Amino acid sequence: CPMSNTLTVATYNQGLVSHGLDQIIESCGLSRDEVFLLLSVQRGSSGNAELQFIELIEHLTVLVGRSSAARSDWLRTTNLDLGHTPLSLIKAPGGLEHVRDYLAGQRYRC
User: Fold this and answer.
1) What CA–CA distance (Å, rounded) separates 79 from 86?
2) Are the C-beta atoms of 44 and 94 separated by less than 8 Å?
3) Which of 52, 26, 23 is nearest to 39 (CA)?
C-alpha cells in the first residue's frame, strides 16, 4: 500500500531527526525544554525547525569545536555581528534561520 510506505518513511525520517536532536541537545549545553521552546517559536517559519537547528549546531561545531561549554558560551554571549546573543535571536520568529545562515557564512568564509 503506497500510503503505508509513505507513513513508514515519514516515521523513520522523524525518528532520525528526533534522535539527532536528542544528541545535539545533550552536547550544546541547553536543556531539552529550552530547545523545544525555541523550536516551537519557529513552527511558522519556512523549513523544518528541527533540521535547521541541527544544521545550526553542525556549523557551530565546525567553528568552535565539540565542547558543550564552548557551544553554550557562543549561544549565550552577545555576538557583535548579530547585535544580540544568538540564543535570544533564535527565540524570535525567523531567528533560527538567521543565526544558521550567519554560521554557515562564517563556516564557509574560512
Assistant:
1) 7
2) no
3) 52
Nearest-angstrom CA–CA distance, 64 and 41: 26
| Three-state SS at 48 | coil
| Rounded Cα gap, residues 5 and 1, in angstroms | 7
Question: What is the amino acid identity at position 38?
Answer: L
Rounded CA-CA distance 38/104 in Å is 19
Q: Render pLDDT for 1-10 as a digit per residue (tens, 0 to 9).
A: 443 333 333 3
For the beta carbon of residue 55, count every other beta carbon within 10 angstroms.
18
pTM: 0.69
Give 20-49 pLDDT, tens digit per residue: 566 666 666 777 777 777 776 666 555 588
Strand partners, 34: none
The whole-angstrom separation of Cα 66 and Cα 98 is 22
**Do 90 and 46 meet the contact criterion of CB atoms below 8 Å apart?**
no
